[in-house]
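Example 5.3 — Methyltransferase FkbM domain-containing protein
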Amino acid sequence: MAASTRLVVGTNMSIFHGEPGANALKAALTSLSVRLAGTDGQSPPPCRPAAAATHPCHRRERPVVVDVGANRGQSLGAWAAIYPGAGMVLVEGNPKTAAVLAGVIGAHVAKLTAAAAAAAAAAAAAGASVSSVPSPVPRVLLARALVGNESRVVKFRSSIGGKSSEMSGIYPSDVPEVNHAEFEYFKVPMESLDTILRKATASLPSPERLPRTGRPRHGRKYAVDLLKTDTEGYDVVALTGAPQTLASARFVLWECHIKMATTSGPGTSHAGAAAALAAAGFESYKLSPQTILRFDGKWYDWRLDKGRYMGWHNCLAVRRDDPLRRPLLSALNGLPECSVPWGLDPVEAQGAVGRP
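Solution (predicted structure tokens):
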């Protein structure tokens, strides 16, 4: 295991670059979508119309997805497919991007609403009984805020026309504004993710508000099925600044970014991220289309926090006690020469390889 880790860190870190790793996770979760719903802890009684007067059945709670740095909604369709009928909170701090995202959300929900209405009409015409499964139409909330570990107003620089987009981001308030032909400047609120979710869901019924401090209803173990962050290098700050949300999440997809190691970045590290996630009950893995690389605890390699080995990588945090841990990790392990995902304990490997 360790030899394989040293090899991939030393020679093949490019396989972890970019979105393919996140896409591999989406594909793996899609293949496990039925089992995701079956292992979230909910066990509603079956709907029996004859007994409804005395023992009414209840609908399953919506799955919950929190997408921080949702951009223009590129992942909205994937989350809706993996978690049908999900309650989503999409967080976007760039004012111009958030305006585009609002339109994308409206169009997506309208499309799914029309499809659901047509399906319901067809079912009614066929005399089908009412299902206990919630509507496949997601409920999507948009929160326009930057995620940090404190509450304040910051200056945000946004590129005009998509040019120099890599230079967009938080701009020092004490530095003069420049290049107005290429950039616009906005004042944007920054708050912790716990606070943002509390405000965004304040109008929902009490059991559906986030973050949840108690155990969810209906036997659910975690209130957030998937937490995704993409904050251009500040993901560790966002996660560690939201202890309630992190404690209530089942899976975490976050971006390991080169900016973590630059002088202008937040000064975070893979080691620090893995330690914080481990304290919350997670294991940590880098994702690629070919394989995964574990980097928490004894699997950490110091080179992961050196600039030449860093880049734009997607990382997964999965709970050690999650019932789908083994099949999910096995689905993500695509190297034919590796019998098990790097970092998976040898004893567990016998049960992981080949599991459906």
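Remark. Residues 45-57, 336-356 have pLDDT under 50 and may be disordered.
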